């Protein structure tokens, strides 16, 4: 079936139905339906499933957008009220800088992180150090976990 015919058949019905089953605003529902139509144009599901497919994709996207808008509105309300917001993205100065966190790593982990930052692949690290794949992987996993913990603290 041609895209224009499918859109004419399901277009307004999709907006109404998704609006009925989500608490999202009309604009959010229309954005979600537009997303569903773009996905439909890419995937083109079988004709008997077109309506169900469009509805599920639009419905999920509407809920996702609604949750994001609600979270943003909550954050904006807290900022407007002058409350302390525990959002690390808004903190201009993290408690531990990345160089300090790297300096706290064990020397071996620091070496592997430096090699990875330099763009070396696992096989190149294995050749350079003589370690096994598992050792290289474990050292990198532990180093990244230590960095995340140091920066999050």
Secondary structure layout:
Elements: H1 3-20, H2 26-43, H3 50-81, H4 98-103, H5 107-117, H6 122-129, H7 133-152
Helix pairs in contact: 1-2, 1-3, 2-3, 5-7
Detailed description of the structure:
It is a single chain. This protein has 153 residues and is mainly alpha-helical. It has two domains: 3-81, no CATH class; 93-152, Orthogonal Bundle (Arc Repressor Mutant, subunit A), CATH 1.10.10. Helices cover 74% and strands 0% of the residues. The chain has seven helices and no strands. The chain has helices at residues 3-20, 26-43, 50-81, 98-103, 107-117, 122-129, 133-152. The longest helix has 32 residues, at 50-81. The N and C termini lie far apart (56 Å).
Summarize the structure.
By secondary structure, the protein is an all-alpha fold. The protein has seven helices and no strands.
Cα Rg:
25 Å
Helix content: over 70%
Order of helices and strands: HHHHHHH
When the domains are counted, the total is: 2
Distance between the termini: 56 Å
Secondary structure class reads mainly alpha
Number of helices: 7
Beta-strand percentage range? under 5%
Main beta sheet, described? none
Number of strands: 0
Oligomer classification: single chain
Please tell me what the overall shape is.
flat
Salient structural properties:
74% helix, mainly alpha, Arc Repressor Mutant, subunit A, flat, 2 domains, 153 residues
């Amino acid at each position: 079936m041609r895209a224009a015919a499918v859109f004419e058949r399901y277009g307004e019905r999709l907006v109404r139905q998704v609006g009925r089953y989500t608490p999202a605003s009309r604009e959010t529902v229309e954005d979600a339906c537009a997303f569903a139509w773009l996905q439909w144009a890419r995937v083109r599901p079988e004709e008997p499933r077109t309506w169900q497919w469009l509805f599920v994709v639009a419905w999920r996207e509407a809920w996702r957008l609604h949750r994001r808008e609600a979270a943003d509105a909550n954050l904006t309300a807290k900022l407007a009220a002058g409350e302390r917001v525990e959002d690390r993205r808004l903190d201009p100065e993290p408690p531990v800088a990345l160089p300090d966190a790297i300096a706290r790593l064990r020397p071996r982990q620091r070496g592997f992180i430096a090699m990875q930052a330099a763009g070396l692949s696992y096989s190149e690290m294995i050749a350079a150090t003589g370690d096994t794949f598992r050792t290289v992987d474990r050292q990198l996993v532990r180093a990244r976990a230590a960095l995340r913990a140091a920066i999050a603290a």
